Each structure stands twice: as C-alpha cells, then as structure tokens.
C-alpha cells in the first residue's frame, strides 16, 4: 500500500453513522417511577409513569404510562419501532454485531466502498448510572476498502496482519468483503445506495440484479453442499464499473451471463467480449438470429458452449437442426459433439450410426428417448482403445464398426492383454533393479526380494498386516517392499520393510508389532541396511577393509 492510495477517500458523514445505527435492533430502556400529578381539583396524587431512553435517537423522556418488558412500541421522539426493555434486566444478550458496506463517492468517477464490522453492547459497569451507557457508541472495525473507476479493474484492500503489524494489503482480484463458509453467509447491509446517483454508477439496478442472481443460484448453485443464497453485491459493483456492457445485458435479458460471471467467474472469452460497448459486439460468433434464439434459452451458458461446438463440428449455422438433435440426445449431446470433434468424425453419419446401435440393443419401445449414456460410453471407450491400438482412425470401418458391442469387447480384451504384458515387462525390470540395489545380509539376517504379487500377498497373510495392498505399487516401481528374513530360514515371513529410493518408510513384523516390539537384532539390521543403501560404494569398501584386517 502507498500512503497516497487513500488520499481523497471521504470520511463517514453523520448521516452514514445513523444509517449504520439503524442496522441494529433498537430498544427503549425504561424504569417505572411514581410521579406527582396534580388533579383537577388541585389535589396531589402519585401516578406511575415510565422514564425512558431510546437506543436509536438517544432521547430521554417521561412516558405517561407504565411500559412492559419486551413489548413492541414506538419511540415518541424519533418514531422508530423499538422493543421495550426494563433497565434492571441483564443486557449481556443484547450484544449485537452487524456488517455493513458503505458507498462513499469521492467524485463522479471515483467511488469508494468501505466495509465495517460493527458492534454494540449495552452492558453497564456495576453501580454506574444506566443512562450514559445505554446509548453506547458503535464500535467499528474497518475490514476492506475498494476504489471503483470507469472501465478499470476495481482496487481492493484488506486490513491484514503482515510483517508483525496490521496494514492495508492490496488484493489481486476484488473479493467480497466478508467471508462466507460452511453454511454461514457473508452477507452485509449495503448502505448509502442513493449516493450513487451522482456518479458514473447511477444506472446500476440492484433490484434486477437480485432477481438475476437468485435465478442463477436456483439453476446452478442451490444443489451444492453448504450453499446459501448470498448475493455478492460488492463484486457486482466492481465489475459493473469495469464492464459497462453489464447494464445492456441485464436489460436485454442476458442477466444469467452477468450472474454467472460474478458467481463462478464464467467468462467464456472465446464467445463473449466483455469489453464491448454494444450488445452486437458482445457475442463474438453469433449473428442476430442466433442471439435472439439464445435469449429464449433457459440455460444460456450451456447453450452458448454447446451450440458453438455444434456449429464447429456441423460446419455451419443451423439452429433448427441443433434443436432437433439436441432433443434426440438430451443431456449427452455435448459429449457426443466432443467425440465427433476429437476423432474428426462425420456429423450426420455419426448421429445415425449411434441411433442404429441403440436400436440394435434396445427393445424398440425404449428407444424413444436416447439421452441414455451407456451406448455413447461404449463408443467412447471403443474409440479410445482403437486409438491406443494404433488402428487407422481415418477409416470409417474402424471408427464406426458394424457391431459396436463386439468390437468394443474385442478391443478391450486386446488392450488388457497388452497392458498385462507391459506390466510383466516392467516388473522384470523392477525385480532386476531391486536385486542390484537391495541385496543385503548382516548378523544372521538377510533381505529377500519379492518377485511376484503372490510373494507379497503371502507375506501379508502370514504376518497379519496390510502389505498385500502394496503389490501394484511395488511392481510398477513406485515403492519397494522388502522382506527381512533369518538366513537360516529364508522362506519364513518374519519382518517386512517399505523403502522408497534411499529412504526407509516403515518396518513391521507380526500384526504390526502391536503385542511385541521388534527384536533388537532387527533394529540393528535396519540401521546397518540404512547405511548401506545411503552410500553403497563406501559401505562395500569399508566392508572389504574390515575383511582384510581380520584375515591379516
Ligand atoms: Zn428514538
């Protein structure tokens, strides 16, 4: 942050402070007292009245009647709805916190937003007269600041702890001022909206924005876990300032695109030009008729993407054709289009082919709706296998086999056989490497290297631990399982070790050593083995020296 960043940012006015105050619940604190009243005949009598203080306007006055705790009433001074609270009742529960965002224009083309976390508490210290503390000052903590300027990316600062102190930290992209998570909304009051009328944001229409956002939420977001309808007003204002096209989009019935951009940062820059001034420049690849059609779609984002893909593989514009094919294939139409694009298939031929394959395997009365995934999935798998097997993907006898099911099963078998063969080859290499790297003996114990999956499974069964599950990763070389066995009995499972490269990851014996710790001899062996795998050349040299000394 630069010191000059906030030059020109207006302070809060009295009006804004009372706007904040109005976000809180208001109370009329009272105490019933006997007051002298003078009767018509000049007689003195005592009557019960209420001595009041209003938490909203701060006025203190006498009400000529007795109030009752917790009733709803109206402050006679400011006319505001208030809840009556007897002064002697505990006020701890009246603590309240609100979050507010204030609009603070500096001039027509510089609009600041300031976010505060505000609290109010009515607790009084013991023995103190209630009145002065009953209308407390609001405590305000400023959390975020924004600067909005025409056609510019909005700037956003957050009050953050950095380098040992709190400072204003500028954010990369403008975010909402308050976090929302796990079902708690980040909502806040948006105050001083009328101040926008003298600025470049005067045409911002919050009411339509709420409606658009709500609809988008219902369509795309309401099914998500922990989802709450929480309208991101701040980001809307930031982007409204940056992209003047928002106004036209909402007016012309494309609010879903605006809501999607704000809610999920859906930009679709291939098809949409957010910098555009006019709607005609906004849709990059759609003509007037197509824009009109899009306007009537209830899922505009999806329609843009799918229709654009359709045009690409079909080769030309044809809304009618798209509509009718979309009706036939329903939800799986996008997948089908992607398949056609990926393998450069012929459009009409492929659609007819898929329908014919459906008809072959489905009873005729069930084929009315073809938005079932299974046949398309089978074709997708088949084409992937065919490509893996190096078949000629330009040949339609290959890409559109007469009997898709049989062709799929055959290709799947071939691919599986090849993969098995590859796995075996890989295992051979891994076994040879392990032998070279890990063969080791020391003090009556030795390393035994598993050479087939059964070896590892048997080890796990005999020692009652979970090493069996490591088999695939061992034979593909991702990790290494080694058996520590007694030299005198090398076939009997004893202790198992997992190694990754030069690192020993775990060492376990019977039932993961729950009942009995590993013997000392095993621990010494592992220590020695560790020295060996870390520096095998040095280790072997020293072993030679040792031998030479002994024989000398
Ligand atoms: Zn009042």
Question: Secondary-structure map with pairings?
Answer:
Elements: H1 14-21, E1 27-38, E2 44-54, E3 60-63, E4 72-74, E5 81-86, E6 96-107, E7 110-120, H2 130-134, E8 139-148, E9 155-162, E10 165-170, E11 189-191, H3 206-221, H4 233-242, H5 245-251, H6 255-264, H7 279-282, H8 288-295, H9 300-314, H10 319-329, H11 333-342, H12 347-361, H13 374-388, H14 396-399, H15 404-438, E12 441-442, E13 445-448, H16 453-463, H17 471-475, E14 480-486, E15 495-500, E16 503-508, H18 520-534, H19 536-551
Parallel strand pairs: 1-5, 6-11
Antiparallel strand pairs: 1-2, 2-3, 4-5, 6-7, 7-8, 8-9, 9-10, 12-13, 13-14, 14-15, 15-16
This protein binds zinc ion (ZN).
Protein architecture, described:
It is a single chain. This protein has helices at residues 14-21, 130-134, 206-221, 233-242, 245-251, 255-264, 279-282, 288-295, 300-314, 319-329, 333-342, 347-361, 374-388, 396-399, 404-438, 453-463, 471-475, 520-534, 536-551, and strands spanning 27-38, 44-54, 60-63, 72-74, 81-86, 96-107, 110-120, 139-148, 155-162, 165-170, 189-191, 441-442, 445-448, 480-486, 495-500, 503-508. The relative contact order is 0.05. It contains 19 helices and 16 strands. It starts with 13 loop residues before the first helix and ends with a helix. The protein folds into three domains: 14-198, no CATH class; 318-426, no CATH class; 439-551, no CATH class. The chain is an alpha+beta fold and 552 residues long. Strands 10-9-8-7-6-11 form a six-stranded mixed β-sheet, with helices on both faces. Strands 3-2-1-5-4 form a five-stranded mixed β-sheet, with no helix packed on it. A five-stranded antiparallel β-sheet has the order 12-13-14-15-16, sandwiched between helices. The mean pLDDT is 88. β1 (27-38) and β2 form a beta hairpin.
């Amino acid at each position: 942050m630069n010191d000059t960043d906030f030059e020109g940012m207006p302070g809060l006015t009295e009006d804004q402070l009372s706007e904040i105050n109005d976000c809180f619940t208001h109370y009329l604190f009272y105490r019933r007292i006997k007051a002298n009243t003078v009767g018509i005949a000049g007689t003195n009598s005592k009557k019960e009245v209420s001595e009041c203080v209003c938490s909203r306007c701060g006025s203190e006055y006498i009400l000529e009647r007795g109030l009752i705790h917790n009733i709803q009433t109206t402050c006679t001074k400011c006319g505001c709805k208030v809840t009556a609270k007897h002064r002697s009742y505990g006020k701890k529960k009246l603590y309240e916190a609100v979050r507010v965002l204030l609009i603070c224009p500096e001039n027509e083309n510089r609009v600041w937003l300031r976010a505060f976390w505000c609290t109010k508490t009515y607790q009084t210290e013991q023995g103190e007269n209630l009145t002065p503390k009953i209308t407390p000052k609001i405590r305000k903590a400023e959390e975020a600041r924004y600067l909005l300027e025409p056609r510019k990316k909005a700037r956003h600062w957050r009050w953050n702890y950095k380098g040992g102190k709190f400072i204003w930290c500028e954010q990369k992209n403008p975010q909402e001022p308050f976090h929302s998570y796990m079902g708690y909304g980040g909502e806040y009051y948006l105050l001083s909206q009328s101040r926008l009328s003298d600025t470049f944001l005067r045409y911002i229409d919050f009411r339509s924005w709420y409606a658009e956002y709500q609809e988008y939420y219902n369509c795309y977001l309401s099914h998500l876990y922990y989802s709450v309808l929480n309208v991101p007003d701040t980001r809307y204002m930031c982007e409204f300032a940056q992209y003047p096209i928002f106004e036209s989009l909402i007016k012309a019935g494309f609010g879903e695109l605006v809501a999607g951009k704000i809610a999920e940062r859906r930009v679709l820059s291939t098809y949409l030009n957010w910098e555009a001034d006019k709607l005609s420049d906004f849709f990059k690849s759609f003509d007037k008729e197509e824009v009109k059609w899009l306007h009537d779609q209830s899922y505009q984002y999806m329609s843009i993407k799918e229709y654009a893909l359709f045009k690409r593989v079909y080769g030309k514009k044809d809304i009618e054709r798209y509509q009718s094919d979309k009706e036939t294939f329903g939800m799986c139409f996008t997948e089908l289009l992607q398949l056609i694009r990926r393998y450069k298939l012929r459009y009409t031929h492929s659609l007819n082919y898929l329908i014919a394959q459906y008809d072959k395997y489905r009873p005729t009365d069930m084929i009315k709706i073809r938005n079932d995934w299974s046949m398309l999935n089978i074709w997708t798998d088949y084409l992937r296998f065919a490509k893996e097997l190096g078949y000629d993907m330009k040949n339609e006898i290959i890409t559109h086999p007469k009997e898709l099911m049989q062709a799929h099963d055959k290709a799947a078998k071939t691919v599986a056989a090849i993969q098995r063969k590859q796995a075996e080859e890989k295992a051979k290499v891994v076994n040879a490497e392990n032998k070279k790297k890990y063969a080791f003996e020391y003090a009556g114990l030795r390393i035994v290297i598993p050479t087939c999956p059964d070896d590892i499974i048997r080890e796990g069964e005999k020692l009652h631990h979970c090493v069996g599950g490591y088999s695939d990763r061992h034979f593909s070389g991702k990790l290494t399982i080694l058996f520590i066995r007694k030299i005198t009995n090398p076939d009997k499972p004893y202790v198992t070790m997992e190694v990754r490269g030069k690192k020993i990851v775990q060492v376990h014996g019977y039932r993961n050593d729950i009942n009995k710790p590993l013997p000392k001899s095993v621990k010494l062996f592992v220590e020695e083995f560790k020295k060996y795998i870390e520096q095998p050349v040095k280790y072997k040299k020293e072993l030679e020296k040792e031998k030479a000394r002994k024989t000398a």
